[in-house]
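In response to the reviewer comment on reproducibility (Comment 2.3), we provide here a single inverse folding case reported in full, input and output, so that an independent group could reproduce the run without further information from us. The structure tokens appear first.
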């Protein structure tokens, strides 16, 4: 089968061909053309268009095309589950999703910069994703220090040092309070967060911010902390307003009510409608006493 997408691939448009060829169609052929020509060329070649707006194989909500292929073709492989998060984080600039996302983006962007021939770029991408798959299959839990007794000894000394200084008061960097103010400002506004933009505003490297964030924000990564804040805002609106649940999902920054319901239940153990009924019943019982 033939597959076609827009030219100059970096993340999804290299990862998806690898996934398709490995799990969906081993004889697949891939074509890269200018964005405006994808649909027209797809008809001429009888090819499946992917990773462009308005086609079946594309992004859905916070998921990228790689995620859709996994779901569509029911690819049940633990290593692919690991790689999906890395690809999604790299492709959507949400490096908090997986530690490896920033590295995958850096390597992919560097390759695209060095290699101007998309066919050669795809060939190199296949090698990279084969390596990533081997790592996710066999080496996911292995640390680099395990292979070096000397480095492992240094690591043990460092850990002991951290333990002895654990009781010392941690100095909070100035950017932490500045970031807290940014998040607070968003609570009653449009409630949108862009880690890359925030990093620019704070004059910090996105990878550094993603890595250091959890130290100062309740041991949560950026995405989990923002979701927690959104749910806390939603709870407040359910308790103290007459907004519908659809309106509340919009006001708290969720893309749709089903996504809101899923995240709300994940955090509270019950869906928003049940939570609202419980609050209403509690208020009714209080008034009746």
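Designed residues, in position order:
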């Amino acid at each position: 089968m033939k597959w076609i997408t827009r030219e100059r691939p970096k993340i999804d448009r290299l990862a998806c061909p690898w996934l398709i060829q490995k799990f969906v169609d081993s004889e697949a052929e891939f074509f890269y053309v200018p964005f405006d020509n994808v649909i027209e060329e797809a008809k001429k070649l009888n090819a499946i268009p992917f990773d462009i707006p308005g086609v079946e194989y594309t992004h859905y909500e916070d998921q990228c095309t790689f995620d859709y292929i996994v779901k569509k073709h029911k690819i049940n492989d633990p290593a692919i589950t690991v790689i999906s998060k890395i690809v999604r984080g790299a492709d959507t600039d949400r490096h908090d999703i997986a530690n490896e996302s920033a590295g995958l983006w850096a390597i992919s962007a560097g390759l695209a910069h060095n290699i101007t021939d998309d066919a050669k770029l795809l060939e190199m991408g296949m090698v990279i994703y084969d390596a990533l798959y081997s790592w996710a299959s066999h080496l996911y839990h292995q640390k680099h220090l395990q292979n070096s007794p000397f480095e492992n000894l240094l690591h043990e000394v460092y850990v002991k040092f951290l333990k002895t200084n654990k009781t010392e008061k941690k100095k909070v960097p100035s950017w932490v309070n500045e970031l807290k103010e940014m998040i607070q400002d968003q609570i009653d506004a449009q409630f949108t967060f862009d880690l890359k933009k925030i990093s620019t505003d704070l004059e910090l490297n996105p990878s550094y911010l993603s890595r250091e964030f959890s130290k100062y924000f309740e041991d949560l990564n950026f995405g989990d902390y923002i979701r927690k804040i959104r749910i806390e805002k939603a709870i407040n609106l359910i308790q103290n307003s007459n907004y519908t649940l659809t309106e509340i999902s919009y006001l708290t920054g969720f893309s749709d009510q089903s996504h809101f319901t899923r995240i709300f239940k994940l955090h509270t153990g019950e869906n928003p409608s049940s939570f609202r009924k419980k609050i209403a019943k509690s208020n009714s019982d209080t008034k009746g006493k």
